[in-house]
Amino acid sequence: MYSGAIHPVKWQMNVYPERTDFLNKLAFFRIFIIVKMAVVFFLQLTIFERCHRGNWTDETNIKWELLIKKQAAKYRQTALRLEGLLIKLGQFLSTRADVMPKAFLDELEDLIDRVPAVPWEEAQTVMEQEWNAPVESVAAEIDRQPVASASIGQVYKARLYTGELIAVKVQRPDIDRIIAVDFKAVRIVMKLAKRFTKFGKQTDMLALYREMTSVIGAELDFRRELENGLYFKKRYESFSDVDIPGYNRDYSTKKVLVMDWVEAARITDISFLERNGIDRQDLAVRLTNMFLEQLLQEGKFHADPHPGNILVKADGTIVLIDFGMTGRVPNEDAVHIRTLIEGILIEDYDQVIKGLEGLRFLLPHADKERMKRVIRAMIDAYTAQSFMQLDDFAIGQLLDEVQQIVKKEPVQLPAEFAFLGRAVSTFIGLLHILDPNIDLMEVGRKPVMDWLGKHAGKTSPKQILVQSLRPLLSFPQKFLSVLDEPRLFREQRDAQQKRNEAERDVLKGRRDALLFMAVTFPGVAAVPFVHHEAIVYGGPVLFMLSVFFYIRAIRAHKRFIA
């Protein structure tokens, strides 16, 4: 949501679906539509994956992209129709440029800062109720066309009688009731995800739901956003290239927020950046420094850093706005984050595991040696890209190992980190829009090293020096890894051969059991017509035994395809 913009957004209401009608405001109807959409998505993805398991080709990938595009289009249409909470969830998905398919991003692009606006008369009513006075008594001038409209509020440009230009953010009518209803629907969806999806089984969905209601629910009270904005303005007052707009306490209420008008454009407005000679790579580096300051220090962080909330002035100054959704990094978690990052930098993977345990990502009975091996391989794979390209076999083995850990190891996503993870992933997506070739390890190295220097952790100056020479010092390790590759390949090949042989034995047993069922079934069918004791008692017993062995063989085979 903008507090300012170079050009007002031109609204063409015929481009979007009509505003929600009476039916869309009914609680039962909204819940039904949201849950039905989620169930259909779950079924489509599950069926597709099962149908193409073990047979994923280029043609399959094209079909998968088409399915994702279809689902994204359906989600966008439903979100623009119902508005409310679906808009905020869609905004998050639309910024995942680092991992989401381009087709998905294109479909959900309209959900960022381009939500259909409510008529001026409705917004005016909210302002006058909150101010307990006519709009004209507060603002000398106010544009009736909003410059931005989002899921919870919309922004108008105005001028006070003192001559100051201001941005007036007004809450959408009845949005608090709509959000409450949508949360009920999301709760149902989360229960279904807990029961039927891998992600749901690995996450405390109830705790995540509580965190979501707390963080997003706080956005419905603009007085909290006011306090958050003042907090970040003080926090960044020493940053010469970061600006936070000022806020007006006198005219800010629970449903109306008044702040200084800022002439700026969305940070992903590439044409604006080029027109003003702003270097995109330098902007990405400065943006990373700003975000790491929030991530590494205890205190509040901006939990919704999508492109509509990060602006840039013509001189390159970064403007951060919309602090309705914030999270907090407790001091004890900041210590564990430092431990984790130090371990990665000095290649001490025992320390990395210790940091993950402290952050509650690993449960006590996790296979720590296996975790260390995979983390080391992932980091080496990333840092080795400039040294040598990994072949498809090595990448496939690494990804398979990661999948096995996620599936079998006691790895969890603590609910309190859900919004921190969301903020990080959203921010990384934004960086990839600015600089598709950005090297996050290299860009983040200096601010992280500066941060480590200011905080007395386990990292000594000697270790920092070792880290600066890491590419050279790690050469023998990588060289030995290359020499050791044939042995690892043989071990993996032998393990795969044993697995294939075991699977063939299971399939053979299932085939034999099925054949035995076919042979013994006539004996069961003949029981009513014969009186021979061997057939009367023996036929059904043999048939039931064959059914038992067949079911056991099916279950055994599922272990190979799970």
Strand content: 5-15%
Summing up helix and strand content along with how strands pair, one would put the structural category as alpha+beta
Helix % is: 55-70%
Largest sheet: 5 strands, antiparallel
Q: What is the number of strand segments?
A: 11
Structure characterization notes:
It is built from 21 helices and eleven strands. The N terminus is likely disordered. The protein is globular, with a radius of gyration of 29 Å. Helix content is 60%, strand content 8%. With 562 residues, it is of the alpha+beta class. Pfam families: ABC1. Belongs to the protein kinase superfamily. ADCK protein kinase family. It comes from Domibacillus aminovorans.
Which key phrases capture this entry?
alpha+beta; 562 residues; 5-stranded antiparallel beta sheet; 8% strand; ABC1_dom; Protein kinase domain-containing protein; single chain; 11 strands
How would you summarize what this structure contains?
Belongs to the protein kinase superfamily. ADCK protein kinase family. This is Protein kinase domain-containing protein. The chain has 562 residues and is of the alpha+beta class.
